[in-house]
Amino acid sequence: MSNNIIEIFTDGSSLGNPGPGGYGVLMKYGEKQKQLSAGYKLTTNNRMELMAVIQALKMLNDIAKGKEIIIYSDSKYVIHAVEKKWVFSWVKKNFKNKANADLWRVFLNEYSKYNIKFHWVKGHSGHTENEICDKLAKKSAEGNGLKIDHGYESAKNNQLKTLF
Length: 164
Prior knowledge:
This protein has six helices and five strands; from the N terminus they run E-E-E-H-E-H-H-H-E-H-H. A five-stranded mixed sheet has the order 3-2-1-4-5. It has one domain (5-159): Nucleotidyltransferase, domain 5 (2-Layer Sandwich), CATH 3.30.420. The model has no long low-confidence stretch (mean pLDDT 94). It is globular and about 45 Å long. By secondary structure, the chain is of the alpha/beta class.
């Protein structure tokens, strides 16, 4: 692999939707590899797919600037939102009636720092790195000490307030 390319493989999981969730990330740069994962008490699959990408991008630093970053994901939700430029039209409308606006805002802040390309991979198809990320995500969702997805909880509470 070229020293000008950073590969990021991501996956998100939710055991129930919503339910406990987690994400998994495998990052490759030259001969170096790094894995990241975390689990949350209550969240959604789409949030975990997006969270995986965000957390990977947050791990990058100045060395990544000027390099090509390829993100591999099985999430059409994430890839289409960026590649089809949906998220940029959501910004113009201040994310009105869009789920996960909190995460999309964080994503866009990180995305703007780098030269990023997305590549869709079919999930559960034997793609080695995607399978690693899937296992990390599921193990995190099933683990102890799950974090609170404050963005999900806040949105859920705001929806309840509008019902009463």
